[in-house]
Design a protein that fits this description.
Elements (H helix, E strand, L loop, with lengths): L3 E6 L11 E8 L2 E9 L6 H25 L8 E5 L2 H7 L9 H15 L3 E5 L16 H12 L1 H6 L11 H11 L1
Parallel strand pairs: 1-4, 4-5
Antiparallel strand pairs: 1-2, 2-3
Helix pairs in contact: 1-3
């Protein structure tokens, strides 16, 4: 199974002093192998903010592929990069955009080149299934739990437990166990 990555950003939510951020996560074999949450520098628009998250997840995906190949795991399929901003995905696929986004277009051109060499491929993920959404905005508890259930790969951990592998014993873990048995 090829690694999969997604990124999400916030933009211009700092009216009460909060910082804009990007979050990304990479999964492999169904579990999170890398996650990142960082502040964004000032950006002129949401599209530029999305480009920062997109290029970072692309960089991490290429690093992950290189690591796997160094370990002898050949990567025959492109790594899927998921995003919830359709205009950003279209720009990364090479669609023309306005000139004031030249910095974002430069970042997207790197992702486009990676797609053309089949290192990565792009796909849209809707908000209910965007598992890094909870790191960039307030979401309901059920979405946080679904996201962590996915990132922790609870189903596989229950089916194939490693020695000493235990889920947390709090109420959250009980919820995850109940969902995995459903």
């Amino acid at each position: 199974m090829s690694p999969e990555g997604t990124a999400d950003t916030t933009w211009n939510v700092g009216s009460a002093g909060e910082k804009d951020v990007y979050a990304l996560a990479l999964t492999h074999n169904g579990g999170c192998v890398y996650a990142e949450l960082k502040s964004l520098p000032p950006t002129s628009c949401s599209a530029e903010a999305e480009s920062l998250g997109s290029i970072q997840v692309s960089h991490r995906a290429v690093q992950g592929r290189s690591t796997l190949q160094s370990l002898g795991v050949m990567q025959t399929q492109p790594t899927t990069l998921l995003g919830d901003c359709e205009p950003s995905l279209r720009a990364m696929e090479g669609a023309p955009a306005v000139g004031r986004l030249r910095h974002a277009m430069r970042r997207w051109a790197i992702v486009t080149a990676r797609c053309q060499t089949r290192e990565t491929r792009l796909a849209h993920v809707t908000d209910p299934w965007n598992w890094v959404d909870f790191m960039t905005k307030w979401v309901d508890q059920a979405k946080v739990e679904r996201s962590l259930f996915y990132l922790y790969n609870v189903r596989a951990r229950r089916e194939h437990p490693a020695e000493g592998d235990r889920l947390p014993s709090d109420a959250f873990a009980a919820t995850l166990r109940a969902e995995s048995e459903a």
